[in-house]
Write a structure and sequence with these properties.
Length: 253
């Protein structure tokens, strides 16, 4: 069974995040100002920690090489996410919370990532019935982007009921824009050698020139056509009629 090897300080951060939300959630509707204050205090501390880490890491090449060696390993994906990964939620603007948030996975989300990797590495199919806002699509993206960045020759596919749901520039709801957001806020030393956004970030096709890897998008009846011979991993995020409040996501090796 695949398991992450997460540094103790990040395990403690997960616990602190869970405790913070437990403290904040009772105030969400009865005391919105209290809810915002609790979460903002937590986020500001975490943003300050990450800012300091970035400054220290960029002081010399040895620091950067050491970090890259560590986070390039699958077993340390959680460490990489919790030091460098960011997500975007425009709905926070109306609440007075940051729209750009440090990614801190909850324990259940870490279990989901381990489940994904177990199926991916053993070449097993899987089905996820996911509720809204549980982060399933985002964490699938984190896993796929990690493989795109560090696995030579990796080929991933993303499908949905409509191609516009997969890739539509400047639409934060589509899957490729989520990938672009994640990559955009990673530190510069993380980026693949030779990567040029103008050449390698195409519509429905993200290319890593250093590793010879890519992620492609498809929609509707075109899903799975022409790519099966080389795909390592594919997310089929089509929404089935009559399944209210959930998406069914199918992925294959």
């Amino acid at each position: 069974m695949f398991k992450f090897k997460t540094e103790p300080e990040h395990e403690e951060l997960v616990i602190r995040a869970v405790d913070t939300y437990k403290l904040a959630n009772p105030h969400r509707y009865n005391d919105p100002d209290g809810y915002i204050e609790i979460l903002n205090d937590f986020f500001n501390q975490e943003i300050a920690r990450r800012t300091e880490l970035l400054i220290e890491t960029e002081k010399n090449d040895w620091n950067m090489r050491s970090i890259l060696t560590h986070i390039s390993q699958r077993e340390h994906l959680i460490d990489g996410i919790m030091d460098w990964g960011w997500t975007y939620d425009p709905r926070n603007a109306t609440l007075g919370l940051p729209t750009l948030l440090p990614i801190i996975p909850f324990p259940r989300q870490i279990e989901f990532l381990e489940w994904l990797y177990e199926h991916y590495l053993r070449q097993k199919r899987g089905l996820v019935e996911k509720s809204r806002d549980a982060g399933a699509t985002w964490f699938f993206i984190l896993m796929m982007t990690h493989e795109w960045r560090w696995t030579e020759g990796f080929a991933g596919g993303i499908g949905s009921n409509k191609l516009d749901n997969v890739d539509q520039k400047d639409n934060p709801d589509c899957i490729f824009e989520k990938i672009r957001t994640y990559i955009k806020f990673m530190p510069p030393f993380w980026m693949p050698h030779g990567y040029d956004k103008r050449k390698h970030d195409k519509w429905g096709n993200l290319i890593n020139p250093e590793m010879g890897s890519n992620i492609v998008g498809q929609g509707g009846p075109d899903i799975g056509r022409g790519q099966n011979s080389r795909e390592n991993f594919r997310l089929d995020n089509r929404i089935f009629q009559g399944c209210q409040g959930t998406d069914r996501s199918f992925f294959r090796e």
